[in-house]
Design brief:
Helix 15 crosses helix 17. The protein has a 5-stranded mixed β-sheet, with helices on both faces. The longest helix is centred in the middle third of the chain and has 31 residues. It contains 22 helices and 5 strands.
C-alpha cells in the first residue's frame, strides 16, 4: 500500500503516487490507482507477447516449402525408434527432439505443418517463459523492453516454424534459467533436487546445447550458495552434479568413441564448414585474438539483428545499440541482482569454452550462421532490456529520451523486416513443382539439381513424379567442367524441365548459369518460372539451339576442400 504524505493545508491530500517498480525478485507492476493511463509497462509487455505470438503463427501458417536443411532432417524422423533414441553416430540433432517429431508425425502425419508443430510450440512457449523470467528479474520497463525485442526478433520468429531444433534450444535454455532462479529464491530441498536432476537430464536429451546453459547456471548456483554460506544447498547440488556425471558419461564416451572411429566425410565437412565458429584455444596470432571482439560484435547482428547482409546500415546501428544496452544491463545487474547476472553470463562463457574445445560452434561467418547459438539470445536480450531501463532511470531527466531512442533503434529494424518481408521463405520449390505438374507433357523429363534433391525427395512422390521421369543431378562443386558433360548427355531427350534451388557452387561459382548456358547451346528454352530461392526452366533439347555457336567456357578448378565439397549431398 502507498503512504499518504502529511499536508499542512486544509486542501484534500494529493493522490498517492503509483507503487514502486518491480523488485528484483519479481514484485508487482505499477498500479493505475484508479486513474486511466494510455500506456503502462505491463500493457506494453502483454502487447509485445500478443504481437510475438501473432508473427509466429502467421509465419507458421504461411506453410512455406521445406528447404535443404529441413529436408535433410525428414529421413531421420522416419527411422526406427532404436535409431532415433540411440543414434549410432554423430547425430546433428538431439535424440529427444527427434523423438518428439516422430511422435507428432505418427499422430498428425508428415505434412509441413505437422513437422513444424514442435518448433512452433517451442517458439510460443519460449516467448511466454521469457516474459515470465523478465518480470522476475527486471523492473517492469526493462521486462517490457526485453520481451518486445524477443517478440519481434526475425530470427526467433523464423525459427519458430523451421524443422530444426533451434527454437527448442531456446526454450530449453529458458527452462534451465527459470529453474536456477527458482532454486536460488526458494532453496534446495531433496525433492527439488530430484526434480532438477531428472528434469535437466530430459531437457538436455531434447537439446544438445542446453548442456552448456546447464553448466553455466549450476556454476552460478554453487557460487551463490558458497558465498552465502549455504553449505547444505551446495552439498545437495553437488550430489545432483555427481548424478549428472554418471548419467552423461556413457553417452559422452559413446559420442567421443564415434568421433575418433568415425572418419566420415560428413563429420569432417561439419567441422570444416563451421570452422570460423570455433574459438582459438589458445590464441596464437593476431587474427586469433581478433576472433573474440569480432565474434562478440557479430552476435548482435546475427542472430540478434535482422536477416540482412552484414554491411547494411540498419544492421550496424542496431548492433551498436545492442552492445550499448548489453553493457549497460550488465552494469545495472551487478549489485543486488548479481546472481541473475551470473546466471545469464556464465552460459555464454561455457558456450565459448565448448567452441574452443571444438564441441559446438559459436556461430558462423555468414548470414544465419548465428542460428546455432540462438539459444543464448535470452541471456543477451534480458541484459539488453535491463540496460535500456537502467539508462531510462539512471540518466538525468533531459537525457532520458536517449534510452527511448536506443530502444527504437533496437526494435524498429526488426519490426520493419517482419512487416516488409513477411513471411520469410528459403526455397519455394513446392509452387514450381505444381507448375511443372500442371504443364508437363507425356515423356517430359525433370532434371533435379543436386541442391534440390532432398526437398524433391519429399515433394516429388507427393506430387506425382515417378523415378522414370526424373534425372538426378550430379554434384561436382570442385570440378564444374563435369556439369558441361552432364548437360550434354541430355541432348536429344526432348522436353526437359531443369529444377534448381540456390544454384551457387563452391566459392560462389554460378553453377546454375553455367548449366543454363550449356542448355542454350544444346536446345531452345520454352519456359521458365522463378520463386524465392528456387527456379525451373523448360528446354526442348531436340530443337535447334538458341545459340548455335561453339560452347567453350573458361572454368575454374578448385583444390580439394572438405567444406566446399559434395559430402552434404552424397
Amino acid at each position: 500500500m502507498t503512504q499518504e504524505t502529511p499536508v499542512e493545508t486544509v486542501a484534500p491530500p494529493a493522490p498517492a503516487p503509483p507503487a514502486a517498480l518491480a523488485s528484483a525478485d519479481g514484485g508487482s507492476l505499477p498500479r493505475l490507482d484508479g486513474r486511466p493511463q494510455l500506456f503502462t509497462a505491463q500493457g506494453a509487455l502483454w502487447a509485445a507477447i500478443a504481437f510475438g505470438i501473432a508473427f509466429r503463427m502467421l509465419q507458421y501458417a504461411a506453410n512455406r516449402s521445406l528447404w535443404l536443411d529441413e529436408a535433410l532432417v525428414v529421413p531421420s524422423i522416419g527411422q526406427g525408434w532404436r535409431q532415433v533414441l540411440m543414434p549410432s553416430g554423430l547425430s546433428p540433432v538431439a535424440p529427444g527432439w527427434l523423438a518428439l517429431e516422430k511422435v507428432v508425425s505418427a499422430v498428425l502425419g508428415t505434412s509441413e505443418l505437422a513437422l513444424r508443430l514442435v518448433p512452433l510450440l517451442a517458439g510460443v512457449g519460449g516467448l511466454l517463459l521469457f516474459a515470465a523470467i523478465a518480470r522476475r528479474i527486471l523492473a517492469p520497463g526493462g521486462a517490457a523492453a526485453a520481451t518486445a525485442a524477443f517478440a519481434v526478433s526475425p530470427y526467433l520468429v523464423y525459427y519458430s516454424s523451421e524443422l530444426k531444433p533451434y527454437s527448442t534450444d531456446v526454450l530449453a535454455a529458458l527452462v534451465l534459467t527459470w529453474w536456477a532462479l527458482a532454486l536460488r529464491a526458494r532453496g534446495m530441498t531433496p525433492l527439488r533436487a530430484v526434480g532438477l536432476a531428472l528434469g535437466a537430464l530430459a531437457v538436455v536429451y531434447c537439446s544438445l546445447p542446453a548442456a552448456f546453459v546447464l553448466a553455466g547456471v549450476v556454476i552460478a548456483l554453487l557460487a551463490a550458495y558458497l558465498r552465502a554460506g549455504e553449505r547444505r544447498n551446495a552439498a545437495i547440488l553437488g550430489a545432483v552434479c555427481a548424478f549428472w556425471a554418471l548419467a552423461f558419461l556413457p553417452p559422452l564416451l559413446m559420442v567421443v568413441g564415434h568421433a575418433h572411429a568415425l572418419a566420415s566425410q560428413a563429420a569432417d565437412y561439419a567441422h570444416a564448414f563451421w570452422n570460423q565458429g570455433f574459438m582459438p584455444l589458445p590464441p596464437r596470432s593476431e587474427q586469433d585474438v581478433l576472433w573474440f571482439p569480432h565474434t562478440f560484435l557479430n552476435y548482435f547482428r546475427d542472430p540478434l539483428g535482422t536477416m540482412t547482409v552484414e554491411t547494411s546500415s540498419e544492421g550496424f546501428w542496431q548492433a551498436a545499440a545492442g552492445i550499448v544496452a548489453f553493457v549497460a544491463g550488465a552494469l545495472a545487474l551487478r549489485g543486488e541482482r548479481r546472481f541473475a547476472l551470473g546466471a545469464l553470463l556464465l552460459p555464454i562463457g561455457v558456450a565459448l569454452l565448448a567452441s574452443g574445445l571444438r564441441l559446438y560452434p559459436f556461430g558462423g561467418n555468414w548470414v544465419t550462421g548465428g542460428r546455432v547459438v540462438l539459444y543464448l539470445a535470452p541471456s543477451f536480450l534480458l541484459l539488453m532490456g535491463a540496460g535500456v531501463d537502467g539508462l531510462r532511470t539512471g540518466l538525468p531527466g533531459t537525457m532520458r529520451p536517449l534510452a527511448w531512442a536506443l530502444l527504437a533503434v533496437l526494435l524498429v529494424p526488426s519490426i520493419a523486416q517482419l512487416v516488409t518481408t513477411f513471411p520469410t521463405g528459403r526455397a519455394e520449390i513446392k509452387p514450381l513443382l505444381a507448375y511443372v505438374r500442371a504443364n508437363r507433357q507425356p515423356g517430359d523429363l525433370t532434371y533435379v539439381h543436386y541442391d534440390a534433391k532432398y526437398a524433391f525427395a519429399y515433394y516429388g512422390p507427393r506430387m506425382g513424379f515417378t523415378p522414370g521421369e526424373v534425372v538426378p543431378g550430379i554434384c561436382a562443386r570442385l570440378d564444374p567442367e563435369k556439369y558441361v558433360g552432364a548437360m550434354g548427355r541430355l541432348k536429344g531427350r526432348g522436353r526437359v524441365w531443369v529444377l534448381f534451388t540456390n544454384g551457387d557452387g563452391a566459392h560462389s561459382f554460378q553453377e546454375r548459369q553455367l548449366m543454363l548456358d550449356v542448355l542454350n547451346h544444346l536446345g531452345r528454352r520454352l519456359d521458365d518460372q522463378v520463386a524465392v530461392g528456387a527456379s525451373v526452366y523448360l528446354y526442348d533439347l531436340s530443337a535447334p539451339p538458341a545459340d548455335p555457336s561453339p560452347f567453350s567456357p573458361r572454368l575454374p578448378r578448385y583444390p580439394e576442400s572438405v567444406e566446399h565439397g559434395c559430402a552434404l549431398w552424397q
